[in-house]
Automatic annotation (TrEMBL):
This is SnoaL-like domain-containing protein. The lineage of its organism: Bacteria, Pseudomonadati, Pseudomonadota, Gammaproteobacteria, Cellvibrionales. Pfam families: SnoaL_2 (PF12680). InterPro entries: NTF2-like_dom_sf, SnoaL-like. Gene3D superfamilies: 3.10.450.50. It comes from Haliea salexigens. Residues 1-88 form the SnoaL-like domain.
Length: 109
């Protein structure tokens, strides 16, 4: 596969998991962004950690859900690189906070 994206297994709405292939990853990203009100997302990005062929990005996401409710959660993405391109992403977040704030209700994946 050219790329994979793995999310926490505790989120039952993301299937299959991991997503494998460009089209499947883009579908996951598109459905995830659709949970939020357009233009409402901001990130508080911590300094990136780079080691060999990996980059770690930690950030807090602030947004409004499509229904107008506020959303805040902390994320950590681990990117694996091959030939200068992202080949795998492992995503970590507080899935309990995600569920309690209503994002699972809006996921369509």
């Amino acid at each position: 596969p050219d790329v994979t994206w793995q999310v926490p297994g505790s989120n039952p709405h993301i299937t299959p998991n991991p997503r494998v292939g460009h089209a499947a990853v883009m579908d996951l990203l598109h459905s995830g962004v659709g949970v939020y009100e357009a233009g409402s997302m901001t990130l508080d990005l911590q300094p990136l950690i780079v080691a060999d062929a990996h980059v770690v990005a930690q950030f807090t996401l602030h947004a409004r859900l499509a229904n107008g409710d506020p959303y805040t959660n902390t994320y950590c993405f681990v990117f694996a690189l091959r030939a200068g391109r992202i080949c795998a992403v492992t995503e970590y977040l507080d899935t309990l906070a995600q569920a309690q704030q209503g994002t699972w209700d809006a996921l369509t994946t």
